[in-house]
Amino acid sequence: MPEKQGGVQPRRPPPGPEPLDLAVIYEDEWVMAIDKPAGMVVHPTYKNWSGTLLNGLLARVREPRIITRLDKGTSGLVLVALSAEVHAQVQRDGAAGRVTKEYLAIVRGSPAPRGAIDLPLARSPEDRRRVVVDPAGQRSRTAYEVLSASNGRAVVRCELVTGRTHQIRVHLASQGWPIVGDRVYGEADERLARQALHAWRVTFPHPVSRETLVLEAPLPPELQTLADRVGPDRARRS
Predict the structure, then answer these.
(1) Annotated active-site positions, please?
(2) Which of 26, 134, 137, 161 could form a disulfide linkage to 141, CB 3.0–4.6 angstroms apart?
(3) What are phi and psi of 113, to 5 degrees?
(4) What ranges do the domains of the chain cover?
């Protein structure tokens, strides 16, 4: 009889380059910014070994180092360093509070016009794929401002003061304002096949020239249509 194989899975080779159509917002010899579509995974995983953002980047540059990470269902800006030194510099700037990351979210509910959510977050002990509010978790802070609101929905600009996994999604849901289409922390929406969260703008000092860069990715059409239905701009009236 043939010898039984053990339960150890063969090791996969390193991720390889793939010629993917990436939406490049900014590029120089030190840093890139990509507008990632919803549905694209950033890093290869066991279930998604090809077609990821990293695969596409490897077809363009030798050693891409992804700085900002987005969930599969979140669209928008991803910063990429093109060397270890640049990656380290942007990380230092982030730790010093010199990097501002702003998101646009469309939520259910009626948030106050502006505020901040300070709640510690940790992985759920029951399901490590989920994040929960936990007094013993990491300090987490999200600042927000309502841009428009009507009929029980709102377009909210969120600023990540800290950068925890699923932070905006969990913080907004904890206040009773789940993101539209978020199947994990809210509920599915038959008109939207993804969560209504978009990494909209990043402001940071260029890692070499130190000039301030302000990079923006416009809302994709499905979210722009949803935002246009929300109603008048409350922020302009206040």
Answers:
(1) 71
(2) 161
(3) -55, -35
(4) 24-237
